[in-house]
Structure to design on (384 residues):
């Protein structure tokens, strides 16, 4: 895949080095253009080093603006108020603005990562709206400490992969639950589980790359979530149930990857801290099986369930997964045995069976790889 990275004169130009190297790590060939203002902030040598390619600083008889305009994607990161405004009016007065006007004419995908002071951002808002209507993608700044900051490199790379993918989930709304629920014993103590939320986050990444609109319903997790996702944070099983009930009716796919507690303590209303002066017997009651409600709320939704078992044979695993499938009306079940080495809750890898009418055995591999295999099935079967 070929990406042209245009670096313009914002202080965030210093981030372009890391960005170029991360794109290359994803096997993307990067050709860099730099504006004169960007060269005042970082030296072109560093971009030449990061990309392994000569940097385009001026146009020559090689008509670089035409030569590179049909790349798979033009990424302007960071994008100044100046470069955004020039493309709004199709001004071509330097190598980058000329490349962008040419690429626009070829309908090459263009992605801007705006980076500027708030006041400048406000001033060019109308230009951004106009370009969005013309099909240009803008990656939202990361909002922190009341400031609009350059997004995480990972967020930009995800957007690049999305813009250049086959987009086989484009137009689909995908809801994913992930992480562990937490049930209060008192105000300071509770019952939870070892789920890291990794599988759900990897599924969200993969669905996003394939073009879906993704919402994550997140319990407690120990991994980072890309800022570009819509996230609904929940704590207890009841919170999770409410969030799922609210969203499921308007989504096309629901992947239930959260580790939802099967039990919750029966506690007295208003209890703050249970005294440790005596032994305690905790009564646990069963929680509702949320997945069984989903098809009643939206019979058209493509439903993916998970079934984790401990120390079961493959036949037993398949049989309990099929039972779950029947009860919940799931279209697909991902089953695994958490007793296996390197597989399960708080690990980077897993070994699963993906079960519908057939059984796909996925040997021990990364959770990212598994997310891809699950999404392959979702893409194929939900588009039927
Ligand atoms: C140190 C420094 C930092 C700057 N940071 C920004 C910025 O973050 N965003 C922006 O739009 N302009 C910023 N500017 C102003 C631009 O560099 C200026 O508008 C320039 O004309 C942009 O040219 P270009 O779009 O061709 O790179 C900065 C200028 C300097 C000297």
């Amino acid at each position: 895949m070929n990406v042209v990275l245009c670096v313009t004169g914002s202080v965030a130009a210093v981030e372009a080095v890391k960005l170029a190297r991360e794109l290359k790590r994803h096997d993307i060939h990067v050709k860099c253009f730099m504006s004169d203002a960007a060269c005042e902030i970082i030296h072109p040598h560093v971009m030449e080093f990061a990309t392994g390619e000569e940097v385009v600083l001026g146009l020559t008889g090689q008509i670089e603006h035409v030569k590179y305009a049909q790349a798979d994607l033009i990424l302007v990161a960071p994008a100044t108020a100046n470069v955004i405004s020039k493309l709004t009016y199709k001004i071509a007065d330097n190598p980058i603005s000329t490349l962008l006007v040419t690429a626009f004419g070829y309908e090459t995908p263009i992605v801007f990562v705006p980076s500027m002071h708030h006041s400048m951002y406000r001033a060019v808002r109308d230009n951004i709206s106009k370009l969005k209507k013309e099909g240009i993608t803008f990656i939202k700044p990361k909002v922190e400490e009341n400031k609009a900051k350059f997004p995480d490199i990972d967020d930009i790379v995800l957007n690049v992969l999305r813009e250049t993918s086959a987009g086989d989930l484009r137009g689909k709304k995908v809801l994913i639950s992930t992480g562990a629920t937490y049930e209060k014993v008192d105000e300071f103590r509770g019952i939870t589980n070892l789920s890291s939320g990794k599988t759900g986050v990897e599924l969200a990444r993969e669905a996003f790359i394939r073009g879906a609109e993704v919402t994550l319903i997140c319990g407690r997790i120990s991994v980072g979530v890309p800022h570009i996702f819509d996230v609904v944070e929940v704590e207890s099983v009841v919170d999770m149930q409410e969030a799922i009930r609210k969203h499921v009716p308007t989504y096309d796919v629901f992947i239930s990857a959260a580790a939802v507690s099967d039990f919750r303590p029966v506690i007295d209303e208003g209890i703050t801290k249970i005294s440790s002066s005596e032994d305690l017997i905790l009564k646990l009651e069963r929680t509702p099986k949320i997945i069984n409600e989903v098809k009643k709320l939206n019979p058209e939704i493509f439903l993916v369930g998970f079934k984790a078992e401990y120390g079961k044979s493959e036949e037993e695993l398949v049989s309990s997964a099929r039972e779950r499938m029947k009860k919940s009306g799931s279209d697909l079940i991902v089953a695994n045995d958490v007793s296996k080495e390197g597989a399960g809750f708080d690990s980077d890898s897993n070994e699963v069976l993906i079960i519908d009418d057939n059984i796909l055995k996925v040997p021990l591999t990364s959770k990212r790889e598994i997310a891809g295999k699950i999404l392959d099935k979702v893409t194929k079967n939900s588009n039927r």
